[in-house]
Amino acid sequence: MLCSLEELRSKEVIDQTTGERLGFIDDVRLDTATSQVRGLVIFGRYRLFGLLGREPDVVVSCGQITVIGSEVILVRLEDSAISPKKPRRGLGSLFD
């Protein structure tokens, strides 16, 4: 199955183990040496309308994807998947 980034961005990502709605795909991780997609990135949610920064980004490796359906992507995450890729600091860094 081939999917464009635009098609992936319209699918909601749900963790199978907890049932948590993680959000929608914002970016992909691409290995430039092999030209393969290594994972999907969901940007962290805003805290207090962005005034307190964002939550950490969720990075889902391709091995954690269990099903890509027509409307959702089911994944099985472990705790290490929710890790700050690049800490996003806005005005929240003043209060953290």
Task: Give me a quick take on this structure.
The chain is mainly β and 96 residues long.
Mean pLDDT: 80
Give me the CATH fold name. SH3 type barrels
β content, as a range?
Answer: 25-35%
Portion of residues in helices?
A: under 10%
Radius of gyration from CA coordinates = 14 Å
Quaternary organisation of the protein chains? single chain
What's the CATH architecture name?
A: Roll
Total strands: the figure is 7
Q: Could you characterize the architecture of this molecule?
A:
The chain has 96 residues and is mostly beta strands. It has one domain: PRC-barrel domain (SH3 type barrels, Roll). It is built from one helix and seven strands; from the N terminus they run αβββββββ. The chain has one helix at residues 5-9, and strands at 12-15, 21-24, 27-31, 36-42, 58-61, 65-68, 72-75. The protein is globular and about 40 Å long.
Labels describing this entry:
single chain; 96 residues; mainly beta; SH3 type barrels; 3-stranded antiparallel beta sheet; 7 strands; disordered C terminus
Draw up the topology in text.
Blueprint: H1 5-9, E1 12-15, E2 21-24, E3 27-31, E4 36-42, E5 58-61, E6 65-68, E7 72-75
Parallel strand pairs: 1-7
Antiparallel strand pairs: 1-2, 3-4, 4-5, 6-7
